[in-house]
Amino acid sequence: MLDVTIFSLFIENIEIISDSFIATFFNPSKIDPKETMTPIVWTCLTYLLSSISLTVWVARTLHKNGRIFLVDSFLGNEALADSINHLLFVGF
């Protein structure tokens, strides 16, 4: 008896959710742009801020620690290593 009641409540909730989704999908004028755009805008801004800060941090770390590797790779030519390091920093 209890299982049947829980199952029927579950089916009723699914019907309510699907009916509201279908009504919204086929009638987009019911959607309030202020309610839907605010979370999207905040999500995009958060993603933009985190990706820019992570990119800057990685570029600075590689620029600082990559010089030693480049000097070793270019057989002690520090001028060439510094110029390549700067190009990599700007290009990153």
Task: List strands and helices in order, with pairings.
Layout (H helix, E strand, L loop, with lengths): L1 H25 L6 H41 L4 H14 L1
Protein model, in words:
With 92 residues, the protein is mainly α. Helix content is 87%, strand content 0%. The chain has three helices and no strands. Helix 2 runs antiparallel to helix 3.
Low-confidence stretches: none
Number-wise, the strands total: 0
- In whole angstroms, the N-to-C terminal distance is 65 Å
The run of helices and strands is HHH
Q: Count of helices? A: 3
Tags for this model:
92 residues; elongated; mainly alpha; 3 helices
Q: Brief description of this entry?
A:
With 92 residues, the chain is an all-alpha fold. It is 87% helix and 0% strand.
